[in-house]
Amino acid sequence: MTQRPTALVTGGSRGIGRGIALELARGGYDLVISHVSHPDTGPDGRPVESPAAQTVRDAEGLGARAASCRADVSKSEDRARLVAFVRERFGRCDLLVNNAGVAPLQRMDLLEATEESFDRVLGINLKGPYFLTQAVARWMIEQVKADPARRCRIVSVSSLSAYTSSTARGEYCVSKAGLGMMTQLYADRLAEFGIGVYEVRPGIIETDMTSVVKAKYDTLIAGGLLPIRRWGRPEDVALAVRAVAEGRLDYSTGEVINVDGGFHIRRL
Ligand SMILES: NC(=O)c1ccc[n+]([C@@H]2O[C@H](COP(=O)([O-])OP(=O)(O)OC[C@H]3O[C@@H](n4cnc5c(N)ncnc54)[C@H](OP(=O)(O)O)[C@@H]3O)[C@@H](O)[C@H]2O)c1
Fold first, then answer.
1. 17: Cβ below 6 Å to ligand 1?
2. Residue nearest to atom 8 of ligand 1 (CA)
3. Does the N terminus or the C terminus of the chain have fewer Cβ atoms within 10 A?
């Protein structure tokens, strides 16, 4: 077992997850990041160049032990393999960050959107984290029972879409609203084990996911949509996760942390 605390960050290859992984590395965590798009090794068995490999290298450069594991969070066999990977390589998991998530492949009006897209988005954004949390929480309980001084924590990255209607991506909104209840449920169930559970709600963050709607949000932000008039960055979200990881919120659980430039404030 490694001496440093270990975090599992899903979707740590790019965007917000990468930002979180690197901030945790700076904060003294070892890391496993998961990703889905690229194989970890080529046909010759050697590691392949990929965004995940880059994040691992950058985390190592910050002093962390780091590894990546290709695992589709929506698939139960991949989740089991991912947890087994963390156990084998690091022997502990102190922090789970449910970050991996997708937008619908195509934005479609609520009255036209398909079941196929609903199943895909809910599978990755809600069912995946729900059951990954279950698997990791069981292991965290084991760890805490073996060493009552250990503190384990779970963070899920939801979205302002948890409470904001976008009728061209209803399935995304529903998935993020579900993560909110998931956080409440696990916070309630795991409090007796000292495991804190948190929801981080990013606003509009500059990543690949939002690159397709950049012009639209540039205009909205310039027009005053956000009290803090700038795009969010992955580092903004990462700092909130680091605060949790460092135990700054240990007497809070089930908490929602908005990282959104003040978007959630109702204004007149
Ligand atoms: N960007 C925003 O404005 C914003 C706002 C609010 C909330 N969020 C949420 O923040 C999280 C990260 O978003 P992002 O903007 O950083 O997205 P991104 O740049 O598109 O990165 C998505 C990450 O998730 C991974 N991923 C996608 N599908 C997966 C699957 N089935 N299994 C495992 N990993 C998977 C990707 O891996 P590969 O690299 O292998 O493809 C990648 O690491 C998401 O949950 C998103 O909903 C984003």
1. yes
2. 159
3. C
Mean residue pLDDT across the chain: 96
Length of the chain: 268
**Per-residue pLDDT reduced to its tens digit, 75-127:** 999 999 999 999 999 999 999 999 999 999 999 999 999 999 999 999 999 99
Amino acid at 133: T
| Domain spans, the chain | 6-259
Residue at token pair 């005053």: 224
* Architecture per CATH, 6-259: 3-Layer(aba) Sandwich (3.40)
* pLDDT score recorded for residue 148: 95
Candidate of 209, 231, 233 to mutate for ligand 1, largest count of ligand atoms within 8 Å of Cβ: 209
Pocket flag, ligand 1, residue 101 (CB < 6 Å): yes
Let me know if 159 is a catalytic residue. yes
Please indicate whether residue 108, judged by its CB atom, sits closer than 6 Å to ligand 1: no
Residue found under tokens 């690159």:
211
In angstroms, the CA 68 to CA 13 distance is 8
